[in-house]
Design a protein that fits this description.
Number of helices: 12
Distance between the termini: 17 Å
Shape: globular
CATH architecture of the domain at 9-74 and 106-179 and 283-358: 3-Layer(bba) Sandwich
Largest sheet: 7 strands, mixed
CATH topology of the domain at 9-74 and 106-179 and 283-358: FAD/NAD(P)-binding domain
Structural class: alpha/beta
CATH class of the domain at 9-74 and 106-179 and 283-358: Alpha Beta
CATH superfamily of the domain at 9-74 and 106-179 and 283-358: FAD/NAD(P)-binding domain
């Protein structure tokens, strides 16, 4: 049966990367979409994102790749450096090589810049699509629709609801109960550094992964090379706050990396305001759809940030969901089943792969330069690198069977 595009009303709870990508893909297919966002102002916490070719090819399909590229940075490659000596190993080439190999670029971008590009594209199709200050507190569904309740605002009825409201999703909690979370013993740091605050030799066009016993650090340029994103993790800490917006001090961050290379300390000293948060792990759901309600992104499959794929998985989810709803017309049950079937194995594999990288990046063998050489030769053998990344980057959410 052909879908009645002018009658199907879809609510998306959460205006993050996944929610806005879903809104744009659905609006372009003629659905009536409203995005409900609890924040009073549409903005993302300031930090960097890595979007590999599997994510940027979705932007190309949505017609926004040029707008995104104008605000991003395209690193020429990625490398590994040893925590103590700074010894460097090449990981893989990017830049033109990513386009030639995978058909799309690998970008690094400030969250705010990507968020703005997506929001502008959504509003260009439907100016009032994003409803701010709309904190969802309850979801109830019947055979013919779903009702969302909001704090201090009237309830709204829709045909379908998509929970894109992140790791602490109210939609997931309402439909599936609490998701058990376990503190990993790992604390993360982040900061955004104006490039001019760094010495010349650190203003580089490659992404760097510093590896060491009990911790690792990632840095890469964003916003056309005007900023350097810094993110790091350290084990055996007792910080239990799972929030990206908990400010701390440069001194506290430095204290977590004693003995690390002077370049690492130079990055930390240049951070205007460091933030830290606790990393919690959660087992992947084996089902994230119930009736007329489904989930995407971190609401469905929260993951540790060790495979640089959280944002790309939400972007892929969003596009596959839109394709499924278009393909199955008014049969929303078949569409949501097809969407979940196309996504759950892949996202579960990413969750597991990200968790596995924690041990790989923090291995005790990295304590000495001699041990590190043998360990890197083994763990970052070109064949193993290909096994970890090729399946990620080559995936095409625009054509995967649904």
């Amino acid at each position: 049966m052909k879908r009645s595009e002018d009658q199907m009303r879809i609510a998306i709870v959460g205006a993050g990367m996944g929610g806005l990508t879903a809104a744009l893909a659905l609006l372009q297919r003629g659905f009536d979409v409203t995005v409900y966002e609890q924040a009073e102002e549409l903005r993302e916490v300031g930090a960097g994102l890595q979007i590999s070719a599997n994510g940027t090819r979705v932007f190309a399909a949505l017609g926004i790749l040029d707008a995104v590229l104008a605000q991003s940075f395209c690193p020429v490659g990625k490398e590994i450096r040893l925590w103590s000596t700074g010894q460097t190993w090449k990981l893989f080439d990017l830049g033109p090589q990513s386009v030639a190999r995978y058909g799309a670029p690998y970008i690094t971008i400030h969250r705010n810049d990507l968020h703005t590009a997506l929001a502008e594209a959504v509003r260009a199709v439907k100016p009032d699509a994003i409803q701010l200050g709309s904190r969802c507190v309850d979801v109830q569904q019947w055979s013919d629709g779903v009702v969302l309740s909001f704090a201090g605002k009237p309830a709204q009825r829709h045909d379908l609801v998509i929970g894109a409201d992140g790791v602490h999703s109210i939609i997931r909690r309402q439909m599936f109960g609490e998701m058990e979370a376990t503190f990993t013993g790992i604390v993360a740091w982040r900061g955004v550094i104006p490039m001019e605050r760094l010495p010349a030799h650190l203003r580089r066009d490659v992404g760097v992964n510093w590896i060491g016993p009990g911790g690792h650090i990632v840095n890469y340029a964003i916003r056309r090379g005007e900023l350097m994103n810094f993110s790091s993790v350290v084990e055996n800490q007792d910080w239990k706050t799972e929030s990206w917006s908990s400010p701390s001090t440069v001194e506290a961050c430095l204290a977590d990396y004693p003995g690390w290379h002077e370049d690492v300390h130079a990055y930390i000293r240049a951070i205007p305001q460091p933030f830290r948060w606790a990393l919690l792990s959660r087992k992947p759901l084996d089902n994230w759809t119930q009736g007329r309600v489904t989930l995407l992104g971190d609401a469905a499959h929260p993951m540790l940030p060790f495979l640089a794929s959280g944002a790309s998985m939400a972007i892929e989810d969003a596009y596959v969901l839109a394709r499924a709803l278009e393909a199955y017309g008014d049969d929303h049950a078949a569409a949501l089943k097809a969407y979940q079937g196309a996504r759950i194995e892949r996202t579960t594999r990413v969750v597991q792969g990200a968790a596995a990288n924690a041990g790989r990046f923090h291995n005790p063998a990295l304590a000495s330069a001699e041990g590190a050489q043998a360990y890197v030769d083994r763990e970052w053998d070109p064949q193993k690198v290909a096994e970890r990344y090729e399946w990620l980057f080559r995936h095409d959410a625009t054509t995967v069977p649904i």
